[in-house]
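Supplementary Methods S3. Complex input for the S-adenosyl-L-homocysteine-bound model.
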Amino acid sequence: MNNYFSSLNQLPKTRVIKEMSRYAQQNKIPILCEQGLILMLQLVNIKKPKRFLEIGTAIGFTAINVALFDDEVIVDTIEKNQEMFQLAQKNIIDAKLKGRVNVFLGDALEFDLKQINNQYDMIFIDAAKAQYINFFEKFAPLLNNDGLIIADNLLFHGLVTQSTTIENKNLKKLVEKVKNYNSWLAKNRNFQTFFLEIGDGMAITQRVKK
Ligand code: SAH
Ligand code: MG
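Predicted complex, serialized as structure tokens:
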């Protein structure tokens, strides 16, 4: 985002948030980019979710930002990497959000849903890109009727729109999976989705009212 808009946008900028941004940059942790975060916080602002679920916590950057932005929301977030899980826990305590941001260690696809709430107003899918359809199918049933699902990295570092030129086979497969998710989502008649060229490609999905 240009510096001009950056200076106009008032984002929460606590010590913990600044430290997390720096840590993510230095260690190449793929946290939500500035534009993506702004979109997320504006959606939170409009939606006023009571419950927010995130798949893929990393160091807790988005989860903590959401909870600091809105003091009513409770965030549950699932992370499969032990090291990330521990960093997130530390950051949550540091931000004095224990009890409002709950991080669970485990693979979201194997996760026992009894451990969390059964109703969420917003669900943010931001974990292993190849599994997006599976994440969606597992977690969308927890979405309230007028809730939102937000997904990140749908352009997969820009590779989705140039997949014909990719030579690495595994990478090509992964890109195909992301494309497959995008078209599956676009065609899904039970949900309305809009794709946005924000950050690395984000989608906002809402249940179609019957
Ligand atoms: N949402 C975070 C960034 C997440 S980065 C933010 O915006 O701040 C993606 C994270 O998803 C990584 O930490 C990775 O370990 C985790 N992840 C990948 N596959 C997962 C899975 N199946 N279950 C849970 N977490 C997963
Ligand atoms: Mg992401």
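The domain at 23-207 is CATH 3.40.50.150 (Rossmann fold). The mean pLDDT is 95.
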